[in-house]
Amino acid sequence: MKHRNYLILFGLIFFLLSGYLNAESLLIFGGKNHKTFLGCLNCNNFESKSIWNSFGKYGNRFNSNSIWNQFGNFGSEFSADSPWNEFASNPPIIVDKNGKFYGYLTRNEFKEKRADFKLANIIYKYYKKIRENVSEWYPKIFN
Asked: DSSP of 64-100, one letter per residue?
């Protein structure tokens, strides 16, 4: 009986870990023809390419290619290339490593194929607060 319980526990752990390890990294691209890499949307806050790593290139609110830079092309509320412009005509896209399209990262509710999943909606709602302290928000959203 004890051996069976260990097998069930091992199976459960394996199942949970395989789901976690196989989770697709969602990548953000913006700019002309969406060629500019803007970071990883769902990577952990220690990864260099993560938008949740405030010490990394894409999570730093002072970097020109960060969606958190309110004065940059990809973080301004006035730029057509920014997710935070409610009327953005060319917002960033979200894709996985194979190029599968998950939608446009945009607060523009009228943009066809707007990303409309839980993580995106949280970011739309709290983006101003998030950019003040990106690293603080990672555990709030992902834990």
From this structure: TT-TT-TTSTTT-SS-TT-TT-TT-SS--EEE-TT--
Instruction: Specify the DSSP class assigned to residue 108.
Output: -
Query: Comparing C-alpha atoms, which of 72, 81, 115 is closest to residue 95?
Result: 115
- Rounded to two decimals, the pTM is 0.83
Mean pLDDT score across all residues of the chain: 88
Separation between Cα atoms, residue 55 and residue 41, nearest integer Å: 15
Per-residue pLDDT of 75-101, as tens digits, reads: 999 999 999 999 999 999 999 999 999
Instruction: Give the start-to-end residue ranges of the domains of the chain.
Output: 24-142
Tokens of 1: 């009986």
Rounded-to-integer distance, Cα 21 and Cα 10, Å: 16
- Structural contact between residues 115 and 103, judged by C-beta atoms closer than 8 angstroms: yes
